[in-house]
Amino acid sequence: MQVNIILSLLAIVSLATLSHGQFFASCPDVKVQKIEPTKFLGTWYQIAKVESFATLPERNGVCSRAVYTVSDEHPGRIALNNSQRITDPVDGKSKFVLGEAYPEDPSEPGKLTVKINTGLFTATAPLWVLSTDYSQYAMVYTCVKYFHLYRFQTPYILSRTPVLDQKVLSEVIRRYEDIGIDKNTFSYMRQKDCKYDV
């Protein structure tokens, strides 16, 4: 019995180490931009993210992008179509995730709640737009705390083009550092030689 408990604790600690999670930590009080949703629509390419347990389904992904449109089923909501290829930018298997995003509080349109249908169940998570200029970059952030015990946070850097201007990228990383995100924890998405599905 004690051996099983010890092994379970070791597994949790290992997961914490691998996923950039944190025990007994709260999600930070971050400033969110009051976005104009219609300007945020369109195609965004993932430039970088901090890996977490929540991003495990994205492992080995390349050419990741998101297309945001007005939802046909629920006017006022944003329809999400996230796609990537596995390993190879041309011949890799395509993976898609569909869902919707909407603000819980209309007075805070940058604090989005995302609902994604996994096929087995519907997953819900916050997706906050910390900053965007709509035409070049977006700082998108999610933070979830499980059982009041363990926190996963995932900052994303998005771009309107597959390559983000280096000066803009450096400024975005600096802003993330201002809220405690270590620049060395970012992993960069391959966007070179990609064959994007329409």
Automatic annotation (TrEMBL):
<dbReference type="InterPro" id="IPR000566">
    <property type="entry name" value="Lipocln_cytosolic_FA-bd_dom"/>
</dbReference>
<dbReference type="InterPro" id="IPR022271">
    <property type="entry name" value="Lipocalin_ApoD"/>
</dbReference>
<protein>
    <recommendedName>
        <fullName>Lipocalin/cytosolic fatty-acid binding domain-containing protein</fullName>
    </recommendedName>
</protein>
<dbReference type="InterPro" id="IPR012674">
    <property type="entry name" value="Calycin"/>
</dbReference>
<dbReference type="InterPro" id="IPR022272">
    <property type="entry name" value="Lipocalin_CS"/>
</dbReference>
<feature type="domain" description="Lipocalin/cytosolic fatty-acid binding">
    <location>
        <begin position="38"/>
        <end position="189"/>
    </location>
</feature>
<dbReference type="GO" id="GO:0031409">
    <property type="term" value="F:pigment binding"/>
</dbReference>
<keyword id="KW-0732">Signal</keyword>
<dbReference type="Pfam" id="PF08212">
    <property type="entry name" value="Lipocalin_2"/>
</dbReference>
<feature type="signal peptide">
    <location>
        <begin position="1"/>
        <end position="21"/>
    </location>
</feature>
<dbReference type="InterPro" id="IPR003057">
    <property type="entry name" value="Invtbrt_color"/>
</dbReference>
<dbReference type="GO" id="GO:0000302">
    <property type="term" value="P:response to reactive oxygen species"/>
</dbReference>
<dbReference type="GO" id="GO:0005737">
    <property type="term" value="C:cytoplasm"/>
</dbReference>
<dbReference type="GO" id="GO:0006629">
    <property type="term" value="P:lipid metabolic process"/>
</dbReference>
<comment type="similarity">
    <text>Belongs to the calycin superfamily. Lipocalin family.</text>
</comment>
<keyword id="KW-1015">Disulfide bond</keyword>
